[in-house]
Design brief:
By secondary structure, the protein is mostly helical. 75% of the residues lie in helices and 0% in strands. The mean pLDDT is 87.
C-alpha cells in the first residue's frame, strides 16, 4: 500500500482535497497581492504630480533644451533680417558677373526645373 505525503511536512496528515484547497487559497492570495500591486503601479504611472516629482531633472533638462532652441531660432531670425540686404547685394553682384561672362545664358525669373517636371507641367496644361 502507498504511503501518503511522507516527504512533505506541510501537507502531512491532509487528504488530497484539503491539500488542493490550501494550494488554491495560496494561489488566490498571491493573485490578489499581484493585482493590488498592479493597481498601485497604474495609479502611480497616471499620477502627474508623482511623475513630475520623480522626473524633475529630466523635465528641467528638456525645458532648458527647448529654451536654447527657441533662443537660437530667434537669434538666427534676427541675424538674417539684419544681413538680408548684404546677402541680396552679394547675389546680385554674382548674377551681374555671370551675365557679363555669359550674356547668352541669362536666366529667366523662373527657376530651372528638371526636364521631366517641365514636360509633366506642359502635358497638364495641354489636357486641362
Amino acid at each position: 500500500e502507498r504511503q501518503r505525503h511522507v516527504d512533505h511536512r506541510i501537507t502531512r496528515g491532509m487528504d488530497d482535497r484539503e491539500q488542493v484547497e490550501q494550494t488554491a487559497d495560496r494561489i488566490r492570495d498571491e493573485l490578489l497581492l499581484t493585482l493590488e500591486e498592479l493597481d498601485r503601479r497604474r495609479g502611480r504611472a497616471l499620477d502627474v504630480r508623482y511623475q513630475v516629482k520623480q522626473h524633475t531633472g529630466a523635465l528641467v533638462a528638456a525645458g532648458a533644451v527647448a529654451m536654447v532652441l527657441v533662443g537660437a531660432g530667434v537669434g538666427l531670425a534676427i541675424y538674417r533680417s539684419r544681413h538680408r540686404g548684404e546677402v541680396l547685394r552679394k547675389k546680385r553682384r554674382k548674377a551681374l558677373q555671370r551675365a557679363w561672362a555669359h550674356p547668352d545664358q541669362l536666366a529667366s525669373s523662373a527657376d530651372q526645373r528638371p526636364v521631366g517636371a517641365e514636360l509633366g507641367r506642359k502635358l497638364i496644361l495641354i489636357f486641362a
